[in-house]
Amino acid sequence: MIMSEFWYYRESKEPEAKKFMENKPEPDYDLSYSIGERDFVNTGKASSEIKLALKRLGVDNTILRRVAIAVYEAEINVTAHSRGGNIIANIYDNCVHVVFKDNGPGMKDINQSMEPGFSTADEMIREMGFGAGLGLPNIKKNADVLHIESQEGANTFLELVIFYE
Ligand SMILES: Nc1ncnc2c1ncn2[C@@H]1O[C@H](COP(=O)(O)OP(=O)(O)OP(=O)(O)O)[C@@H](O)[C@H]1O
Ligand SMILES: [Mg+2]
Q: How close is the Cα of 132 to the center of ligand 1, in Å?
C-alpha cells in the first residue's frame, strides 16, 4: 500500500492560495454534512446549501457555479465510491474551503484516479448516470486549490479552495 497525495494550485491564484493553506485562519462560520454510503437521495444537499450560503454573501454567479460543480462532484464521489463520510465547508469573506473525509476504502493511485475517463464505478453507479471518470478532472478545473490524500484500504481526504474573485 502506497500513500499517495495530489496537490494542485491554479497558477493565477498560487501565491495567495499557498499563504492561505499554510496558515488557515478561523473561518467566519462553517457548514457540516454527513454522507451515507450510496445515499444518492441526500447527495447534492451540501453543494446546494453551500452555493446558497455564498449567494447570500453576494458571490458572483460564475464563482457560484464553480463551487456547486466542484462540491457536487466530490460529494457524489463520497456517496458512490466510499463507505460514507463527512463534509465541512469553511466560509470566509474571500474564499470557501471545503473538506471531504470518508471512511475508506481509498484509492489505489490518485494520479490514475485524476485521469479523465478513469473510473471504477460499478453497474449500479453507471445506471444512475455516473462513472464517466470526469468528476475529479472537473473538480480540478473548477477549484483554485485541490489536495487529495488516499491509499488503498484507507480513508480518502479531499480539500478544495475557491476564491470569490
Ligand atoms: N472518495 C473516494 N474514495 C475512493 N475512490 C474514489 C473516491 N473518489 C474517487 N475515487 C476513485 O477515482 C475514480 C475517478 O473519480 P471521478 O470522480 O473522476 O470519476 P467517477 O466518479 O468514476 O465518474 P464520474 O465522476 O464521471 O461520474 C473513481 O472511479 C474511483 O475509483
Ligand atoms: Mg465522480
A: 9
Q: Please report, for the domain that includes residue 49, its CATH number.
A: 3.30.565.10
Identify the CA nearest to 8 among candidates 142, 100, 117, 119: 142
Domain of 11, in residue numbers: 4-108+139-163
How many separate domains does the chain show? 1
Question: Ligand 1, atom 8: nearest CA belongs to which residue?
Answer: 77
Ion ligand 2 residues within 5 Å by Cβ: 77, 135
Q: Tell me the longest C-alpha to C-alpha distance in the chain.
A: 45
% helix, strand, coil for the chain, step of 5 = 40, 25, 35
Q: Give the pLDDT band (50/70/90) at residue 1.
A: low
DSSP 134-157: -HHHHHHHH-SEEEEEE-TTS--E
| Cis before 105 (ω within 30) | yes
Q: Is residue 99 part of a domain?
A: yes
**Mean pLDDT within 149-157:** 97
Quick one: average pLDDT of 61-81?
98
pTM exceeds cut of 0.85: yes
Q: Does residue 120 lie in a domain region?
A: no
CA distance 140 to 127: 25
